[in-house]
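Researcher: We're reviewing a set of sequences before deciding which ones to prioritize for further study. For each one, I'd like a predicted 3D structure that I can look through quickly. This is Alcohol dehydrogenase superfamily, zinc-type. If possible, include the structure in token form so it fits the rest of the review sheet.
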Amino acid sequence: MTSGRSNAGQYANLNIRSAMGSLTTNEWRVEKQTGFDGLHFSKNVPIPDLGPNDVLVRFHAASINYRDLIIATGEYRYPTNANIIPGSDGAGTVEATGSRVSRFHVGDKVITLFNQGHHAGPLDQRSMKTALGGLLDGTFRQRGVFSEEGLVAMPPNLSFLEASTLTCAGLTAWNALYGSADHPLRPGDVVLTQGSGGVSLFGIQFAKAAGATVIATTSSDEKAVRLKELGADHVINYKTTTDWGKTAKSLTPEKAGVSHILEVGGPGTLRQSLAAIKIAGLITGIGYVSKSGDQPTLLESFSAKCTVQSIVVGSRAQFEQMNRAVEAHNIHPVMDQKTFRLEDLKSAYQYMSEQRHFGKVGIKID
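Model: Here's the predicted structure for Alcohol dehydrogenase superfamily, zinc-type, in token form for your review sheet.
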């Protein structure tokens, strides 16, 4: 958040706003939810006028989430609007502001908020209807108009590509570890992450910064080495150790169990998570990557004597809290070695769909 405006910023703002009619953007849209071929790229699309509380953002980077892939294929379990601009994650600079905007000025570096209406407190039905890339036009474009309330200031220690990964995966991991007033992450806690997706990698970084012990699961020895390098204290290959829940519990102090589990698998992993969790521990349901599995009953969940919750990313207040921690601990998101240009978005989708990545897949824009 910034305060005050320089004279130069005011003049730059006025000049850009006077030229709004001539500004255009290149953008992707999900014309059909039948696969990646349903994505359509358009050039030189006119920018809409700014409302009094709106901000024009010129994107420099974006990143892809698993959610983006399944919106394109029609497998997403939440509502989406037709012909939507996909992408929830983006970072860029403010090019113009509406007459009543007070939170940002021209030249500020900003990041998009996933649920544009989720500013603080618990998620509600109204906020759920403001999800970027699903119900509101998203970030896979050069420029976009957003409410000033749907943006946060970018941590100064990050590049645009790094910052563009925080919106969904970063904030989801942060909310899972710090969002519950009854189960905040504390030094000495044991955190279990699943796989090497964006949320899990952020979970490792946030947990280690807090002084926690991390147990990570993975499907390959190669990925296990990289998870160790990232800070995981123990790594379990779930392909060779199918009963990994008990193994994880045996690695905790007094074999009492894990304090926090970032549950991304869903049907295929929840039973093992229940075997790993400690009494009064917290399992946070984040995703449903595995389509099927030996799912436990509700009564079995009760028997574990733990809390099981489901979250959808997090609020703007949590985002700003997370960004302060990212700056204070100089945390840098894990990026895949390969990046793509905006016009190559279909190739980026395919690359991620084939699970050839490790870390967040970034999109360079301008």
